Amino acid sequence: MKTYINPEESSWPKVLERPQFNLQELNRKVGDILNDIQANGMEAIRRYTEQFDGVMVPELLVSSHEIDEAAAQIDIRLKEAIQQAADNIRTFHSIQHPEIRKTETTPGVVCWQKPVAIEKVGLYIPGGSAPLFSTVLMLAIPARIAGCREIVLCTPPDKSGKIHPAILYAAQLVGVTKIFKAGGVQAIGAMAYGIGPVPKVDKIFGPGNQYVMAAKQLVSLSHVAIDMPAGPSEVAVMADESAVPAFIASDLLSQAEHGPDSQVVLVTNSRKLVIEVEQALEEQLSQLSRAAIARRALENSVAIVLDSQADMIRLINEYAPEHLIISMKNYAEVAEKIINAGSVFLGNYTPESAGDYASGTNHTLPTHGWARSFSGVNLDSFMKKITFQEISRDGLLNLGPAIEIMAAAEELDAHKNAVTLRLKSIEDSGKQ
Ligand SMILES: NC(=O)c1ccc[n+]([C@@H]2O[C@H](COP(=O)([O-])OP(=O)(O)OC[C@H]3O[C@@H](n4cnc5c(N)ncnc54)[C@H](O)[C@@H]3O)[C@@H](O)[C@H]2O)c1
Ligand SMILES: N[C@H](CO)Cc1c[nH]c[nH+]1
Ligand SMILES: [Zn+2]
Questions:
Q1: pLDDT, tens digit, for every residue of 187-238?
Q2: Nearest residue by C-alpha to atom 9 in ligand 2
Q3: Is residue 424 pLDDT above 90, yes or no?
Q4: pLDDT tens digit string along 253-307?
Q5: CA neighbor of 313 nearest in space, from 279, 297, 289, 337
Q6: Is 8 noted as a catalytic residue in this protein?
Q7: Which residue, judged by its Cα, is nearest atom 20 of ligand 1?
Q8: Do 232-375 and 392-431 have matching folds?
Q9: At which positions is Zn(2+) bound (predicted)?
Q10: CATH homologous superfamily of 23-103+116-227
Q11: What is the pLDDT of residues 154-192, one digit of tens each?
Q12: Ligand 2 centroid, distance to 234 Cα (angstroms)
């Protein structure tokens, strides 16, 4: 981790720069694969699965036998943990149900908005370097609560053509309707276009590596909606002298171990803390199975010392981290001033892993600064809203003249006429 002491504000964008992809090259490569999939369907999907996942998969659809087999392989303690996490995720997302509220905007003019589930959703579950079965819970539980009719899941097969049993177990537990062995761009193309046994879905959800993220963005230009750009994981920690260096190191490493393109950031007003965190990082790294990945992510990462708390807050809002941990004495006060972050974790006893797995909040969150404008996945993500209105005769008498004047001013006679004809009929019926 590189350390910066009171960097000039003008240099913050450079200091906070995220690992860059060659976007043009990435989009060209991913675009070519998508075109091939559109043109050659299943043959292309099998070919790319062999090329990128190293396995030929004759049948994409996971059978009920494979699902039963997986359930038998899961340890009872893992099943209980998954159940506890699922219950909390269900509780937190259930309270997000929007109310239907009618309002009378003008006497006789009643308007309301009704949330309706998106019918067919596609969930992408990363599987390249770790089987993220927790992401199954994060996506399928709100999809079920929203009432989505078809919940399709794609995830890459391993070298023997199998899917990790915990992914299959979690998927059947929370009501995924079909599971397919497809990863990366192949999976996104299959769900966007509807290829072979994979149905075309209306919206694709889920995180993934740079290829998955680029594919989601490309198919969203013309074929399907997507949740948001959710790419390589990141965390920022704001800490003062009340923080525990070992806890901070563990939180930084928990996101660094996701992938070499992850980024972690420490912002503090204490130089001593930076030194202690660096020592703790070294101690903990030696015990991690994914130490090599985490070390590479730490090369993208920074510790920043800022003497003023107001500057710390401004810098974090500029960075807009996917996850933010606030380990400061006055964390509640600081949290109030955060305007750009995917998910915020308060105090010394709230590790970011809690949100990754089991506290109930969603871990599919905007990365790469997209937290400035996107929310993480929530119940609303699986719904669209239809507006309704009903206007009575009196209502049209009250509102009609304004519509006529506005339509005339926009020189749209037919629009005006749709009101004028009705007003005239009301007038005529009053004369009889
Ligand atoms: N933001 C979030 O909410 C969130 C949540 C969980 C995970 N993540 C991130 O998701 C990512 C998961 O990445 P992953 O790689 O482990 O799994 P992945 O499933 O996203 O990607 C694996 C797939 O990438 C494709 N691929 C690999 N090399 C390729 C190449 N050269 N060209 C084209 N396609 C290629 C393969 O088809 C493979 O199946 C990590 O970066 C992690 O940080 C983010
Ligand atoms: N931290 C990831 C989101 O950025 C989610 C995750 C899944 N499993 C562990 N962590
Ligand atoms: Zn994580």
A1: 999 999 999 999 999 999 999 988 999 999 999 999 899 999 888 899 999 9
A2: 356
A3: yes
A4: 999 999 999 999 999 999 999 999 999 999 999 999 999 999 999 999 999 999 9
A5: 337
A6: no
A7: 208
A8: no
A9: 255, 258, 356, 415
A10: Nitrogenase molybdenum iron protein domain (3.40.50.1980)
A11: 999 999 999 999 999 999 999 999 999 999 999 999 999
A12: 9
* CB of residue 254 inside a 6 A radius of ligand 1: no
Biggest alpha carbon–alpha carbon distance for the chain? 92
pLDDT for residue 351 is more than 80: yes
Token pair of 302 as six digits: 């920074």
Q: Annotated binding site for Zn(2+): which residue ranges? A: 255, 258, 356, 415
Q: Does 362 contact ligand 2 (Cβ within 6 A)?
A: no
Fold of 392-431: 1.20.5
Question: How far does residue 156's CA lie from ligand 1's centre (Å)?
Answer: 9
- Domain boundary assignment for the chain: 23-103+116-227, 232-375, 392-431
List, edge to edge, every strand of the sheet that includes 263-268.
2-5, 302-305, 263-268, 234-239, 323-327, 343-346
- Topology of domain 232-375 in CATH is Rossmann fold (3.40.50)
333 is catalytic: no
Instruction: Find the 132 Cα to ligand 3 centroid distance in Å.
Output: 9
For a mutational test of ligand 2's pocket, the pick from 135, 213, 322, 353, i.e. the residue with the most ligand atoms closer than 8 A to its C-beta, is: 135
Q: What is the pLDDT of residue 129?
A: 79
Helix (H) or strand (E) holding 33: helix 23-48
